[in-house]
Amino acid sequence: MEPETRTLSAAVREHLRQLCLHEFPCGTGSWNKSRFLPQTSRAWRELIPRQEKALSPGEETVEDLLGLVRSAHSPWALVEGSSAEDLFLKELAIQNPLMLKDSFFYTYFRSLRVVDKDVSLVDKELLKFVKLEELVLSANQIKEIDTTNLPPTLKVLELYGNKITSMECLCHHPPPRLQHLGLGHNNLLGHLESLHVTSDHWPNLVSLDLSFNNLMDLHSMVAGLQTLQHLRLLLLQGNPLALVPHYRGFTIDSLARLCVLDDITVASSEKHLFRGLSHSEDLLAPEAQILVTVGNLRGVLDSSVLDPEPGPQGPFITYNYYVTYDFVEDEEGEGSQYSGVLAEIIKPPSSLEQLGEDILEEIIEDIEESSESGLASLSELGEMEESIVSGASEPLPQSIGSAEELAKLRPLLDPRLCPSPGTVLFSTVPKPWSDVIPCNYELQHTLKDLVPLKAFLLSGTTVTVVEEKILSWPVEQPPSSDSPLAAKKGKGEKDKKEKEKDKKDKKGKDKADKGEKEPPKAQKGSKKQKELPKEMHQDPPILRVLGSSPVVLEALLAGESFVSTVCNFGVIRTLEADRLTLNRDAKKNKKGKKGMGGEDGVEKTEQRAMRKKEQADLVTGEQVQAQAGLLPGSDWGLAVRFAFWGRSRPGLPCTANPLIAPDSHFHIPSDVKSLVSVFESDYQPEPLTVEIQIQLIQWRSTEEALRGLVI
User: Fold this and answer.
1) Tens digits of per-residue pLDDT, 71-80?
2) What pTM value is reported for the model?
3) Of 104, 210, 440, 635, which has the maximum CB count within 10 A?
4) Are strands 260-261 and 233-235 parallel, antiparallel or unpaired?
5) For residues 533 and 670, is the Cβ–Cβ distance under 8 A?
6) Which residues, in sequence order, are CB contacts of 637 under 8 Å at separation 6+?
7) What is the pLDDT of residues 189-199, one digit of tens each?
8) Is 74 helix (H, G, I), strand (E, B) or coil?
9) Read out DSSP for 515-548?
């Protein structure tokens, strides 16, 4: 059902009715009847209020009535957001209510603002405003305008936030004196719009706002704007054409008379930097370049410390962490260029694919066999789902109930790991856990389809931190054969070895008789050398989303060159896990120090033992370490962060990552035993964060543009 058409004149009448210009305290009534001459008198003096010496009972003075309108606490005050014209009409209706006639409205007002009133049609009633110079019809439902209904005196026309798809309707009989035209936030689209911005239609246009539409062809648009001799202010930001790297430079160099572009003054130095860029029009490709950078990942929970020690048969568990983000897919298939980036996420390993195919074949056969016998229970189906997702080798059910249940057999994947429609998922390189994981990711996206890119920037992207858990199992070696042939072969090899041994003994005896020394025999490889690593079989990775956060990119459309943010996903680390991590690192450091023993180590130990305490209220770092429950040789940087977690204490060096040696001293409470409780009370783990920067490439000079073209 089509919405009801609402005319501009109807909206104006409704607005005047809501102002209550003929009701108390406005208009005429018992509250001011003695101030005016009788209505029978037709003299001009009827419009002049009387100066009564004393008011009759029940009447109010003009000042009191004006106070009721002007006071914010009065029930007759204007609603919030009312214009200055509304207040003027209310005060006029109190002072001279007899002036408020239709002829007054049509001849007095030079500006008319009808904003957000659901107006869809500009009718002929507007021509009655014979002195109208400014017309603001923003935030309405206007799709087309019949310019024959616009007053010829109009100088300013604003149609922001409507549903206009083409400027063609405004070019039939445009107001000849129009100096400013505002068409921002509409649906202007197409290459023919450049034909409607010429001096043939707008000979006196000084300011033009076409921002936040869907204009794509920068070169043809600038060619039409070059004919506007009086144009000084131009807004094109928010259009797809403004996303190309040469947008600002090409526009400034092409429109020499331009003073302001996108609310930024065009300086003479900027004109000099872009001089000559418009002559390279054929070399400037209409494509956008966006650089995505992912920095450090912090605050990740080390899940490996929560797993039990693996046995000789496994599983051996490894963890990796990476960051994903979605980005718009180019029409020429940018996703295919980077199709291997997320192979671990979207595409399962070949072994799993083969397993899935075999499973599906068996399931289909089972469905055909079980169609006569009945349906399987949902509990069996749930167990099978879990086995496929986790990669465990559990027996599969022998029958499936229906086709809908068959669809549930697909591996369960967190929806946050799936790109939204029209986008492609990109990922950093998976890296093992550390206190700070440097992603070191940088990728430049080049897109030719600019309209979907604008829509993507309006909606923003989503950044996700993923934990990848991989279980590895040793591959069992095939058992040796016990066949007679093998036994015979083994016996022959044994006889051969005995003969070689006899020869060596004889040779050694001859050398001894000659007085020669036999070189020391090398140790057997089976004892000295480590066993060769066994072949490992990896299960499909188990993915877990640690955090997901949207990133707003609309600022890139509004003129900003980049968006830089730190996505904060909250705290996921725990006190127990951090304790286990510290103790694990302490054991590693202790083993390393044992292997580095020697005179230097002993000498340093003796020097530390001979040092004296400087103050009675100082304790050594070793005491701190002992009270914290850490083993000797712990990572002191982590220990101090664990204890104080970024807070400064008296006597503690004020550094971002303090590295305190065991012989360092701290000012701490006199009761050393309570130190552990102080640690726990001050425990403030770092939240899970990742640094993201998305930059819209914009050339700042002709030289930079030409260099970019060469590269």
Assistant:
1) 888 899 888 8
2) 0.69
3) 210
4) parallel
5) no
6) 657, 658, 659, 660
7) 888 899 999 99
8) coil
9) TPPPPPPPPPHHHHSPPPPPPEEEPPPEEEEEEE
